[in-house]
Amino acid sequence: MFFEYMIAGFLVVSGTFGFVGSFGLLKLNDPMSRLHAPTKATTLGVGGVLLASMLHGVVIEGHLSLHELMITLFLFLTAPVTALFIAKVHLHRHETPSSLPKAGEDGIWATHDVDEHEAEADSGSN
Q1: What span, in angstroms and rounded, lies between the C-alpha atoms of 11 and 76?
Q2: What's this model's pTM, rounded to 2 decimal places?
Q3: What is the pLDDT of residues 77-87, one digit of tens each?
Q4: Cα–Cα distance for residue pair 86/98, rounded to 1 Å
């Protein structure tokens, strides 16, 4: 009985995270903010479903399956990489080197090609 409540709790929490991620995707203003909502919240939502599935398999059905662990590994490896690629594409398409904030000690942003003379001039002015 206790484990059934835990399974139900994991499913409710994961549904809540999935809803929050979907809501953020629809309601946030700019693409970079929209990117944050589904990559973080929905990853936690799918993680909750996978935890519920693992617990159900062990406690109710009596066998341990490693499929959920492989799905979790794949999800946690691919979601951040995908988000990084989407963010880089956004920067390349919508920003110019002059519209980006100062890069700090590096002098230039890694997302834009800058010729050597311009890089030297920027690093010399800091």
Answers
A1: 19
A2: 0.65
A3: 888 888 888 88
A4: 21
